[in-house]
Amino acid sequence: MEERNNRRKRVGKVISNKMDKTVVVAVTTTYQDPEYKKYLKRTKTYKVHDENNECNVGDVVEIAETRPLSKDKYHRLNRIIERAK
User: What's the pLDDT band for 5 if we cut at 50, 70, 90?
Assistant: First the structure.
């Protein structure tokens, strides 16, 4: 992949690969509640462009923001960190 500007990168887990050239990735972030100071988990799903259909369910992947590729696809697959067992 050619050099791109500094884009936001996220790490998540593939939860679906049923579409062609698209995977759904769940990214979990933790944050602290401002009032009660408890740590909470928030999970958000992103549709990610996977040009070669190389991801499988359970893979841990790194995704990067990009220009809109379709109606709700605006992330690209950067690399596969860990394959599902």
Answer: confident
Domain ranges of the chain: 9-82
Task: Measure the CA–CA gap between 80 and 76, rounded to whole angstroms.
Answer: 12
Write out the two tokens for 65: 């923001």
State pTM to two decimals. 0.87
At 21-69, the pLDDT tens digits run 999 999 999 999 999 999 999 999 999 999 999 999 999 999 999 999 9
Instruction: Return d(Cα 18, Cα 80) in angstroms, integer.
Output: 18
The CATH fold assigned to 9-82 is OB fold (Dihydrolipoamide Acetyltransferase, E2P) (2.40.50)
